[in-house]
TrEMBL record:
Organism for this UniProt entry: Luteolibacter pohnpeiensis
The entry's keywords: Membrane, Transmembrane, Transmembrane helix
Protein name, entry field: DUF3147 family protein
Transmembrane annotation, as ranges: 9-30, 42-60, 72-93, 99-121
Source organism, top-level taxon: Bacteria
Length: 131
């Protein structure tokens, strides 16, 4: 992984503020929908809205097609280790686990699945975490 230019990461422009509020508004909207319809909320959150927005922001920021393609491909592989959480978490909650221990356990499991995915994919020539 290349050196992260923190001065650029931490620099905030007016357009960054716009992106922040639009992205936050989408999340808030989905959360408000959840109050009335958990299935519709789940459908909306399952849509890759944040990934699509990120790619739009990347394109708007002048990123190359290669960078956007790398982002999309990496997102695919990074989504896979998160999927078991959406089966394990409801099972745990329905079997007497309380919310915070369930969330912690699933975060740890997801991190473990993430590193397992990185290790397995390296064996097939796909390096999600280049040095």
């Amino acid at each position: 992984m290349s050196r992260i230019p923190w001065e650029k990461v931490l620099a905030v422009t007016p357009f960054d503020i716009f992106k922040l509020f639009l992205t936050a508004a989408i999340i808030l909207f989905v959360n408000k929908i959840q109050i009335f319809n958990d299935r519709l909320s789940a459908l909306l959150i399952a849509l890759p809205l944040t990934s699509v927005l990120a790619m739009i922001w990347m394109h708007h920021g002048g990123q190359s097609s290669e960078r956007i393609a790398n982002h999309a491909g990496g997102t695919f592989w990074f989504v896979l280790p998160t999927l078991p959480m959406f089966l394990i978490m409801p099972w745990m909650l329905r079997h007497g686990w309380t919310f915070w221990p369930t969330l912690l356990a699933n975060c740890l499991l997801t991190a473990g699945f993430f590193w397992l995915t990185v290790f397995v994919l390296r064996r097939f020539g796909i390096d999600l975490m280049p040095k």
